[in-house]
Structures are given as structure tokens and as C-alpha cells.
Amino acid sequence: MYIPFENLPEDSKIWIYQSNRKLSDDEVNAIDAKCQEFVENWAAHGTSLEASYLLKYNRFIIFAVNQEVQQATGCSIDASVHFIQQLEQEFQIELLDKMNVTYKIGEHIAHKTLIDFKKMAKEKAVTSKTIVFNNLINTKGEFEEFWEVPAEESWHSRFF
Hints:
- This is ABC transporter ATPase.
- By secondary structure, the protein is α+β, with helices and mostly antiparallel strands.
- It has two domains: 87 residues; 60 residues, no CATH class.
- Helix content is 32%, strand content 25%.
- It has four helices and nine strands.
- The strands form four sheets. Strands 1-5-4 form a three-stranded antiparallel β-sheet, covered by helices on one side. A two-stranded antiparallel sheet has the order 2-3.
């Protein structure tokens, strides 16, 4: 059951998928329709999940589930990963590779491999003040407070 993202409680579980490239507006519109349909039908053991999603910066897909109503289970999480894999194939993008870093350069959003980001940190092309996207957070509250943060305030700090 779809719930507007802002109506979910702060402790709702979230999953963040980042694209290896910026999506076109047409791609975002198509993905938006697919995500809406997926979330409306997302269930755990036959019980609808109170869930939502966001598409941010033409690059991120964020799913959220209110676990106070119904917990996401292994099968429902597998269903979401399968859905993400379908998007990867259809749009020729990578969404599941966690060994990449997405960060801001001014208003521009850049995407690099972890190895390249480490090298850039060493060369001071990015600093501990660079805004990064911390995709390891787990709840809606953490998403709102700690998703876009200076590298020094996230797991990226180990590179500086």
C-alpha cells in the first residue's frame, strides 16, 4: 500500500539505490510509474506493506517501509531487489553496486568508483568537507538528517 514518503514514521526502514549515471527526465518518469506500481503491490507473506519511494536528483531510488505496520521479510526484500534488477536491465544502469561513491561538486552530482574516490581524496580533489551521499543509513529519520553530509560526517571520513 503506497503512503506518501513524508507520512511515514521516522523509524521506517529504507533502502537506497544509486544509479551509475544521471537518468533522463523521460527515464525518471518511466521509473516513477514502475516504482509506484511496485510499491502499491509490495507485500510480505501476503500482507501489504505500508511503503513509499522517492526518486532524487535523477540518480537515486529510495524505498521505505513502515515496519510498525508490517515488517519487510526476506521474500519481500528479494522482490524489491528483483524489481531493481529489472530496472537495471531495462534502463541499462547499475543500481546494486555498492562499491561506488556519489558526491556533490557544487550543484553537480558526480559518481566514481570507490578506488577513484580514494585516489581523489589522496590528491585533495575532494576533501572532508565534500558533500557525499551516505547510502548506508537505515531509517527515514537518518535519511533526512544524515544522507547528504560532509564526508567527515559519514563512513567516507576514513579516506581523509
